[in-house]
Amino acid sequence: MGLLAVMACLSLLAIMSLEVPRTLLYLSARTEWVEVRVIDPKRSALWLPRAMDAATKSCAERVFVTPAVGSVVRYVRPRGSSLRVIIEAAPGTTVSHGDGPARRMDEPGLLRYQVIRSDGDCGTQDRVRLPAHGHLVVGQALAVQPSAADEPSSLLISGKLQVFGRAISRLLWLPLDVPPFVAGALYPVNELQLPGGTVVQRALAEDRQADPAAELAAWSGFVDMNDADPSQALDIEATSNARSVAIYLPSPPVHQGQGGAAPDVMSLTQSARLLGDPNLRWIYGVLTALTLVLPLAGMAVRGALVARRRHAARPGAAP
């Protein structure tokens, strides 16, 4: 019992001293709306083979835009429609068309392009792949359409969101850097199928969704025009080293009522970590083996000592 009590205390101490969880979020979705707040211009630079420029009402060839930090880029493609790229450009954004020189924007401005899938004027059949690096919002909230003249909401149609954990790199003062331990190894934790009308936003570096000042985590990925699907929406694939992500489902949390605005939060829970971390599983196996082997070894030693005493107590027994 004493040994078990010591092991239980050490286990509790080890759990309390675990490092801050490291997680990876993976988003794969079909959507009509993606919004990106730019944090790295080079990784957010976008190229369009041919597009209609809304400002000049003319066709632009080989459009290349490098949005400055703070710019907001929106990719919108409602069902049965063309792709619209709308850029709320911050100062410092550069734009070039064709073989012309790049133009630097010294003031905030709005850039709007339309990519048309056709063989006609200003149409293109080339592959269109767009960057999704920064702070993302995927899908709009489903809202009542005020009138026939207004556009309906551009929705996330379907998708999935997966949470992966990263295995611990040390336990108490011991680094786990020798086999069979693998520090930082990914392991699956949770997966959520996203119903149509969901809004994905606010991926955070810490579990503080209620704190407006909490640090946002960046997503990294890409957006493809989905021409193989009858809905002609957009495909997004992105990952984020975030602690949690806010998900606004069509049905809000029950305790908020039908009008509630609080999101559901998907993150790595402590219980999922304790059950899923492969390095912790190895440690559990060692502890289980010690728990079983040590009492059995003690019983064997005690049995041998008793047998030796009995043998020594027999008359005429050799010393």
Q: How would you characterize this protein structure?
A:
By secondary structure, the chain is an alpha+beta fold. Helices cover 19% and strands 36% of the residues. A 9-stranded antiparallel β-sheet has the order 8-7-4-3-9-6-5-2-11. Strand 5 and strand 6 (83-89) form a beta hairpin.
Determine the mean pLDDT: 79
Distance between the termini: 35 Å
**Strand arrangement in the largest pleated sheet:** 8-7-4-3-9-6-5-2-11
Q: What proportion strand?
A: 35-45%
> What oligomeric state do these chains adopt?
single chain
List the keywords.
single chain, 319 residues, alpha+beta, six-stranded antiparallel beta sheet
Q: SSE layout and pairings?
A:
Layout: H1 2-16, E1 23-31, E2 33-37, H2 41-44, E3 46-53, E4 58-66, E5 72-76, E6 83-89, E7 94-97, E8 103-104, E9 109-115, E10 129-131, E11 135-138, E12 156-166, E13 170-171, E14 174-175, E15 186-194, E16 199-204, E17 220-225, E18 234-240, E19 244-248, E20 264-267, H3 270-276, H4 278-313
